[in-house]
């Protein structure tokens, strides 16, 4: 099941974002302070025991632009389309909010292409570059992320 994140989910979301495997795509870590401040951005996937097994956030950038970020599904739950459902839930929320352009920076472009995102020139997303990229250990010389965008 996919649902909005709750305050008692923050520690699990933090664990998901902090403990991705080296062979997995990079997910920028978030501090507890950032997670509490942006909790309303997150949706989570939960298993039958209501344990958080995935998360994704819709971050509003500007009046006409939002970002899909912090997408993680625990390895044992992959292949069940939870990543797709998390992203689709965020896209639905974007439409509800009246935001019709959503982007992501990803090391998994094929996944997002299957959802309808198309590759975009990174330079066109300069608002994002100055926000999170400056804090990334891979910026600027070792970034493997691809910018992808979807017009809803």
TrEMBL record:
Record flagged with keyword Transferase: yes
SUPFAM superfamilies: Acyl-CoA N-acyltransferases (Nat)
Ranges in coiled-coil conformation: none
A Pfam match: Acetyltransf_1
Keyword Acyltransferase among UniProt keywords: yes
InterPro entries in alphabetical order: Acyl_CoA_acyltransferase (IPR016181), GNAT_dom (IPR000182), NSI-like (IPR045039)
Positions of the N-acetyltransferase domain: 1-152
Keywords: Acyltransferase, Transferase
NCBIfam families: PRK07757.1
Protein name (Swiss-Prot/TrEMBL): Acetyltransferase
Native source species: Pseudodesulfovibrio sediminis
């Amino acid at each position: 099941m996919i649902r909005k994140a709750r305050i008692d989910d923050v520690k699990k979301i933090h664990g998901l974002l902090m403990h991705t495997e080296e062979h997995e795509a990079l997910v920028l870590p978030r501090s507890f302070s950032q997670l509490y401040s942006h909790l309303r951005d997150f949706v989570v996937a939960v298993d039958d025991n209501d344990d958080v097994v995935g998360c994704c956030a819709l971050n509003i950038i500007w009046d006409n632009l939002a970002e899909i970020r912090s997408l993680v599904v625990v390895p044992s739950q992959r292949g069940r389309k939870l990543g797709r459902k998390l992203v689709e839930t965020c896209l639905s929320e974007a439409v509800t909010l009246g935001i019709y352009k959503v982007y992501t920076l990803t090391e998994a472009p094929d996944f997002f292409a299957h959802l309808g995102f198309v590759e975009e020139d990174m330079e066109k997303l300069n608002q994002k570059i100055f926000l999170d990229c400056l804090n990334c250990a891979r910026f600027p010389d070792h970034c493997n992320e691809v910018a992808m965008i979807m017009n809803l």
